[in-house]
User: Fold these one by one.
Assistant:
Number 1:
Amino acid sequence: MCGIFGCALLGDNSGEVLYASLKRLEYRGYDSAGQATINSGRILVAKDVGRIDEVDSSHGMSRMRGRIGIGHTRWATHGAPSRENAHPHLDCSGRIAIVHNGIIENFMELRELLQKRGHAFKSRTDSEVISHLIEDFMRRGEGFVGAVRLTAEILRGSFASAAICLDEPDKIVCIRRESPLIVGIGEIGNFCSSDIPALLPYTNKVIPLEDGDLAIVDPKGVRILDWRTGSAVEREVVEISWSPEIAMKSGFAHFMLKEIYEQPMAIRNVLRGQRIYYELAASMLRRASKVFLVACGTSHHACIFGSYAMANLSGLASYPVIASEFEAQYKNLIDEDALVLAVSQSGETADTLNAVRAAKAKGASVIGITNTMGSSLTRLSDVYIGQNSGPEIGVAATKTFTAQVVVLLKLAMELAKSGSPRSGIDSLAEELAALPSKMEEAIRTSEEKVKHIAMKYSAKGSFCFLARGVNVPTALEGRLKLLELSYLPALAYPAGESKHGFIAVVEDGYPVIFLAPRDSTRERIIGNMMEMKARGASIIALIERGDEELKELADDFIEMPPCANELLYPPIYAVPLQLFAYYTSTLKGYDPDMPRNLAKSVTVV
Ligand code: M6R
């Protein structure tokens, strides 16, 4: 996601400090950068699309003077990458500047309200409402700090935001809810930052802000209030001993593990996605005579899930197809009534883009689902939905897979609204809202057990993943994670298919991983387990918490949180499989962030 940095210095070299700190936030991924400082009674702004060095050479970021400043690396969610959409954003008068990381859910209604009150917006971002809201409260007599506090109260969604104002030019005011924000206490001044690595050259004394905190950062000190009550709060100063490299990974050994842990947040961001895009996409899907779900690799597995979800919830039949096979298989079926739903984390996968171009050339409509705003896929699509997972640095897709699954589930639910009884959808929606906490629970409760199982089985030469129904795409994804990170020839099948060939491979001790939640597939899965067991296989089962019968049957088991609706199992059951691949890879001495021969984005056919 975006990165923010602010400095309140004893000297007036904030331009140089901000520029150097934004460079340290670069690893998070970004498409534009910018900074604002207060100098001689003015707010100076330098911002643009491109690398920080490019923005510096065209706009002189590092030469900007002033004791107080804020900076930002933007990773577009609302509004394409452009100079206007780059942060910082000013208010109408140019007296307030803000930077923001997060998603403001109610920005559309706030923007409309502010426009009616005479505010002129320059960008298409959700973030710009923050500077105008602060301005609006100040016009009504609030001081700067009070206006930021009132602004925080009416924002819905997630935010880490820092604001500066000419009326009180000696301070930065920061607020936080859900998005990370850390205050640094230094010798040359005080700071705020999205993460620790950017702070380390200046200080190792930090205060991680908590939800509801408002921090007033000036060159000599920091005060923290609770923006919900206005009262002062005490926060502990923590001394950091991390190396810069570990700090970049927030203390995790690898980006992959960090990204596995980021999944609850990534799902929260999907749940915050603007409904209007889902409505538009659903109305296109309803009009289409044929629907193709086109993608590669992990995104293809998400599409298989999407196809199950759309059929089960709304009765819509769709064809999930590997992008590189799309033309060979379906070119004669593509016409103006066809619709291609293309899913690509990067939005740049050549096979997926080629399939989209071929479909467009024949007049088909295109819906894109991607994690990268401004990517080729967003430009080629008639409508696109952002999955808002934040940049994924590990080559293996983790948080972007579970986020794609949830985007597709939301789309299937939107489609279902016109068809099946609303009550089913309403209870699914309620359970979906609780999914991020279930993901947290799945990570927390499974990691140690998975580590133990990975140690027990890491010397095996092959594994097979079996599941039924909506859990099949998760099994395919578990297989892909394991083989790409551990270089093991792993297999995966719908369990019913296992006796049509695979079973010949099974011998004493061959490890078979079953996805066995307590759902409509359970009885038949037990039958498949018995078949494998009878041939000497070692059974590793992902089971629902407290399923004593399966505990008896399996050689090893991992207990997962229960779900009332089986469509919610895939993102939850993906977690232990990601962890299994991660730990098997590290046990074998490989680097899970950079598996051999693979690229994060495959831009060649
Ligand atoms: O960026 P995309 O979603 O289009 O990428 C498609 C595949 O290359 C990708 O999902 C790949 O399979 C994963 N990195 C595997 O973990």
Note: The longest helix spans residues 435-457.
Number 2:
Amino acid sequence: MKTLLIKNASHILTMDDKENELTNSSIFCRSGVIEWVGDYKNLKEKADHTIDAKDLIVIPGLVNTHHHLFQNLTRVYPQAQDKPLFGWLTTLYPIWQKLIPSDIYISSLIGMAEMVLTGCTTTSDHQYLFPNGSKLEDQIEAAKLVGCRFHAARGFMSVGESQGGLPPDSLVEDEESIIKDCQRVIETFNDEKQFSMLKVVLAPCSPFSVSQNLMKITAEMAREYSVSLHTHLAENDEDIEYSKCHFDMRPGEYAESLNWLGDDVWHAHCVKLNDNESDLFAKTRTGIAHCPTSNMRLASGIAPVREWIDKGVKVGLGVDGSSSNDSGHLLNESRQALLLQRLKYGADKFNGREALRLATKGGAKVLNRNDIGEISVGKAADFAIYDLKQIDFSGTSSDPIAALVFCGPVKTKFTICNGNIISENGHMKKFDLNLSLEKHSSASNRLINN
Ligand code: ZN
């Protein structure tokens, strides 16, 4: 059984229940699980591999709760740069229509690598387009090579323009094939065990692109298979208007009417939820993926994260799609969340530790997992390890943990998932990043220029 020792780390942010922060401490892991944490002098075991963690800061691997990896092929697209959500989407749909399976693979590989290099060890992805024969396995294959945990959200759209929806008809799938493929991917790929590296999630794109009936069927299917549910909700004012106009309900009421609330459900954004809806989310233990950069980029609004946390709503962070971010840096999202909540509520109303909690344990709870997001005995050996000697940390010895979000944003020296080093000093362990970047670039050029 493979063992790993992280020896004498200068700082460890555990995110355990007592919010312990350790100095000059070590972590011993066996077969991908943390077995011991403490003073190296007291360790009885010898490890197969040791990382000398002097001058390093170790935190739980970051957890990303919302993304659309394919969008990194159309970052900063000029015609969509300055539009709010609906205009941004309708500008990009015609380009996304040309995606082929190898595009889904390479965008997933690069997008996951980008997150791993910045400290993320678990990501979900909301893939709601499957044009030209693309399949969920195009992403799953990429996740295996990257070595991170993956919550593959099988998304879909069923209401095209001709039926009053937003996407072009050519990008929507018929309901029968959606249902069949959802069953297929759950039965083929979902691993529900503890320390799972791959979970399947059912994820209709949004209330403005999926029928009411299919939303209900999806909820029933998810409960039958015990998988989670995910979608976009209450992202901006246009979204609220659509809900009132088409369903005569606010988004929270709509979600409730479809049985889309509960511990096994998380919604992206929720910027415009009102007080009653937030209470409902707290009461039902429904999770929220807060995506601050995307919300600012699309001018959707400032989500009331402070109030959500105080009410007991489960909140994690998402980078959101790379065409509305246009980055995949979760530690930076943590920083953005910190700054945005301070802007809304005041400088003393949101602190750095809370922002880091959103990116780690908060995200784990949103994904309905209790085995990640924390450095404690019995939890997964997933770590983001940063070098305190890099320029971004210079002058921060009074509080290097806070520096993770107040300074930077920084990349990791090591990212470890399931006890394996998956990136080191900016290099991915299992593939040549430069070669893959070339492929990514040519895929992007083909989509944009043809
Ligand atoms: Zn999204």
Note: The first helix runs from residue 85 to 96.
